Amino acid sequence: MSDTVYNCATCPFKPTDRICKTDSGRYPDNCPTVKAAKIQTMALDEYGREPVSTFARQASLQEKDGYANRESGYENVRPAKPRIEEIFDFIEKMGYSKIGMAFCIGLRKEAAQVEKLFASRRLEMVSVICKVGRVGKEAIGIGDHDKIAAGEFESMCNPILQAELLNEAGTEFNVLIGLCVGHDSLFFQYAKAPCTVLAVKDRVTGHNPLAAIYTLDSYYRALK
Ligand code: SF4
User: Fold this and answer.
1) If you compute the radius of gyration of the chain from its CA atoms, what whole number of angstroms results?
2) Crossing angle (nearest 10°) for helices 83-94 and 108-120
3) What is the residue-level pLDDT of the chain in tens, covering all 224 positions?
4) For site-directed labelling of 88, which of 32, 114, 161, 196 has its Cα 20 to 30 A away?
5) Ligand 1 center–CA 123 separation, angstroms
6) CA 185, 187, 189, 190: dihedral to nearest 10 degrees?
7) 0.85 exceeded by the pTM?
8) DSSP letter at 136?
9) Pocket residues: Cβ below 6 A from ligand 1
10) CA of 69 to the centre of ligand 1 (A)
11) Alpha carbon nearest to ligand 1 atom 6, residue
């Protein structure tokens, strides 16, 4: 384990001046571009192996396709597509035909619309709701006082079962819609196919978690 702690998120240099963007760029003492040569080589080796190689190349092409107006130069590019369209494009690029969807019961209407959109593109859909299996929360040690509706039966979110059902169905690519914090982590841990996230859950902000970050100097200052 390295004793250097990396903090790219708080790198003090302008993005265009950084060594991870430009050959003779600037960097702090704990810069992983400079310090972590061995792991960089390991990562690069991984990109050379199929199927990672194809996946990474197509993901990079998808990144490029997310911008319009490239012919006018980097300063003038514009965002081209919403995420749902990018997901469709990426699926097409990869040639996937069987898609898994793991979704939260709270976003069931959105999930139904998304499933229809996928199906209209002749994709075979397998979707599994978070409450699948109807297992009581007692199974994971949750007592009555820790339920949302204390004293009633409460079906636990079951991301491991969601993942295993999609694994069993042989989905080639999984799309997440609104799984809770932690439940999404378990889904990622158990799913065999590569996954992407269409929407993350944020009950307060209409599933836009960055709203709290954008307003950190005003309404959400108490978080600091
Ligand atoms: S890789 Fe180095 S230069 Fe780039 S953001 Fe991280 S610390 Fe800064």
Assistant:
1) 21
2) 40
3) 778 899 999 999 999 999 999 999 999 999 999 999 999 999 999 999 999 999 999 999 999 999 999 999 999 999 999 999 999 999 999 999 999 999 999 999 999 999 999 999 999 999 999 999 999 999 999 999 999 999 999 999 999 999 999 999 999 999 999 999 999 999 999 999 999 999 999 999 999 999 999 999 999 999 99
4) 161
5) 40
6) 160
7) yes
8) B
9) 8, 11, 18-20, 27-28, 31-33
10) 28
11) 8
Contact 179, 103 (CB under 8 A): yes
Distance 185 CA to ligand 1 centre (A): 27
| β partners of residue 102 | 128, 176
Q: Does domain 82-224 have CATH number 3.10.129.10?
A: no
Q: For a pocket test of ligand 1, which of 31, 34, 40 has the largest count of ligand atoms closer than 8 A to its C-beta?
A: 31
